[in-house]
Structure formats: structure tokens, C-alpha cells
Design a protein that fits this description.
Layout: H1 5-15, E1 22-26, E2 29-34, E3 37-43, E4 46-50, H2 56-60, E5 65-67, E6 78-81, H3 89-104
Antiparallel strand pairs: 1-2, 2-3, 3-4, 4-6, 5-6
Helix pairs in contact: 1-3
């Protein structure tokens, strides 16, 4: 499955001031990584957002947001956001920076 390259470019612009961001193709899409953690990504034209457990319920209450369920089982702390939910640059920035902020609270991953 291809991912929306225009959305990828928009995310790159939002994240350009953040250090240590990398990209990895996964899930048939594109994931943005930092400190070894995936925090936001794209599958098709849908945004994957790792919001964490504290913001999870609130995120699900927002329009155009649904549970992320690759395997048929919802992944707690992750949501899918449909395109109308990040149409505005301010909304996309909010999602990306909120998710990036969440992974900053996680412990450092051990080097492989």
C-alpha cells in the first residue's frame, strides 16, 4: 500500500525543527521515529498517531479519530486520524508535536 507523499512532506515540515527524527517504511506506510520509537506515521492517507495512554480517550473523542487496529485488536495509546482531522496545518502540527512530546516521556531504548 502506498502512502500519501504530500502528507509525508507536510509532516517533514512540521518536524524539521526537532532533532533526531528519522523515517522508516513499515506497515505498508511511513513511520516517523525518534529515540527508537515510532510516534507518528502514514498508512495510505490516514495518520497514525501515538498519543499515549493518558491522552488516548480524549483523542478518541475528537472528530475523525478512531482506534488503531492493524490486527483486529485495538492498540492502546495509538489512534488513526482520517484526513479531515488534519486538513489544517495547525491540526497536523498539533498531532505530530503531541505524539513527539509523548515519546520524550518514555525511557531510552537500549542499543541493539
Amino acid at each position: 500500500m502506498a502512502y500519501d507523499e504530500g502528507l509525508a512532506e507536510r509532516l517533514r515540515e512540521v518536524l524539521q525543527s526537532q532533532r533526531g527524527i528519522s523515517e522508516r517504511k513499515m506497515f505498508g506506510g511511513l513511520a516517523f521515529m525518534n529515540r527508537g520509537y515510532m510516534f507518528v506515521g502514514i498508512v495510505g492517507d490516514v495518520l497514525m498517531a501515538r498519543v499515549g495512554p493518558e491522552y488516548y480517550r480524549e483523542a478518541l473523542s475528537r472528530p475523525y479519530v478512531r482506534e488503531m487496529d492493524f490486527t483486529g485488536k485495538p492498540m492502546k495509546g495509538y489512534v488513526f486520524v482520517d484526513p479531515p482531522g488534519f486538513e489544517l496545518d495547525a491540526d497536523l502540527s498539533d498531532w505530530a508535536l503531541r505524539c513527539h512530546g509523548f515519546i520524550q516521556t518514555l525511557p531510552a531504548k537500549k542499543a541493539k
